Amino acid sequence: MAHSYLYPLRGNLWASHREIKELLTFSSRRKAPGPEPVASSPGGGGVSERAPGAPEGPGPARGSGDPGPGYTPARLIGLVLGPLLFAVTLVFFEPEGLSPEGRAVLATTLWVATWWITEAIPIPVTSLLPIVLLPLTGALGGDAVVAAYGNDIIFLFLGGFSLAIAMEKWNLHQRIALSIVAAIGTSPRRIVLGFMVATGFLSMWVSNTAATMMMIPVGLAVVYQAARSLRGGEFAADLPKFEKSIVFGIGYAATIGGLGTLIGTPPLAILSGTVGELFGESISFGGWMVFGLPIVVVLLAFAWFYLTGVVFKVRFKHLPGGKEIIRGERRSLGRMSAEEKAVLVVFLGAAFMWVTRSFLWDGLLPGISDGVIAVVATVVLFTLPSRNDEERKILRWEDSKKIPWGILLLFGGGLAIAAGFVETGLSAWIGEQLRTLDGIDVVLIIVIATALVLFLTEITSNAATATMILPVMAAFAISLNVHPYALMVPCAMAANCAFMLPVGTPPNAIMFGTGRVTIMEMVRTGFWLNVIALALIVAGTLYMLPLMWGIDLMSLPAGFR
């Protein structure tokens, strides 16, 4: 009888594992939704005309090589290597100056990181290991470890997920996106800009995967119309460039837009949580937007100019039928329903409270936090009635199944390890070991560290990279006697900026899954965007962050020692 209960549980855990991979790593190539091919474009331009179709749900591409829930050789190696590294570190690794508790945290980190990387067991289950290992090794008390899984930043993300689910359930996100595209214009370059602005804005509030999946079919429908209108004309050869600029523009905008808010991308949430665990400081939602939003605007503008003015420049200035497609898509949505209006009001209210909390509400409402605001918005969404006969509430408990609970466990595991780093002195010990780099210029160190994370995240999970690297960067900054934000902020942002490879981010995988771009095109196009992102992130951190947040990056505040 026990097996009848265990098998569904095991299946659910692996389903959650795959969900996290889709949202954070996209390690297997996925088939993006999009139009179906109907006929080759005349003129030999290399573009296939495709009829616009409704979005299909994401699913593994045929031949993607996803090993599923079974044990592959890599998983078997990881399954053994994780506990082995844990045991060897505890028994044989006795460096001078590191306490036994610090050694236990290091051993736990090696075990958890190994299973995260090799996916030996489902990621959510691996993320629960600190609850077992840290107390049993005497590194941290059980209460302190479990408390990390209830960190305020986790509830901020829970509320963000709930808002995103409500927007998608009632199609509010699609209405917002199409309105932005229609408002910006319908010349070829403006169409690309419209898609990028709409996708970037959505990605600040919903997952970059959802934003890309929604916009790609609409973008390819516009390309299909362009192919029909320009067939056999003098500009037919420019269609492949226009098509690629839309595909790249949507994918890149989804990645860039996530940098604008703390709920836009997991590394920023991990940054905020890690700062709270290590130093007792908080990065407010509004405070981050003041810094992150200008970087999003500048990087988005450069990406648009780079794609439409340099790499995929087209000669035609007007796209026949483009305006009609956008209008048709908006008409198909019908009038704004009462449910959409309700979700919009809750969304705007939550966004207003997040943005203004630090300078307006902290004094009036003691105890208010970004997580509290997110939970209030979630409760309201589950409370508001609906006029729909089949859906009596804006959100029902059945909708909560779409919340990626495994990601919240991943955050909790990372924050528990971060707490262990500071409580046991492991972070201070790591900082001491890094003092050998004291003679190197601090700006050069920031550039090197940011570049390392940026190119590392091309092949690893951005969340796992941020979880493992941020406590080390904090210790490194303290050893250099500079503000921890000088290294932690650019590294957290860089962990999200992978533009070169399909496995780098979900939007990259979706772009590649359309079949419109090749890996070499992604590498060539994305490399220079990586370089610009690196320069912009470092410059923003060095020159804009001190002004926006009123801090001195080149000195270590007493509260961070």
UniProtKB/TrEMBL annotation:
Record's subcellular location: Membrane
Primary location recorded for the protein, binned into one broad class: membrane
Membrane topology: Multi-pass membrane protein
Keywords attached to this entry: Membrane, Transmembrane, Transmembrane helix
Keyword Membrane among record annotations: yes
Residues annotated as transmembrane: 74-93, 105-125, 145-164, 176-198, 204-224, 245-265, 285-307, 342-361, 367-384, 405-430, 436-456, 463-480, 527-551
Pfam family, one: Na_sulph_symp
Biased composition (Low complexity): 48-59
Region (Disordered) location: 29-67
The organism's place on the tree of life at top rank: Bacteria
InterPro entries membership: SLC13A/DASS (IPR001898)
PANTHER family, per database record: SOLUTE CARRIER FAMILY 13 MEMBER, SOLUTE CARRIER FAMILY 13 MEMBER 2
Family the UniProt entry places it in: Belongs to the SLC13A/DASS transporter (TC 2.A.47) family. NADC subfamily.
Protein name: Sodium-dependent dicarboxylate transporter SdcS
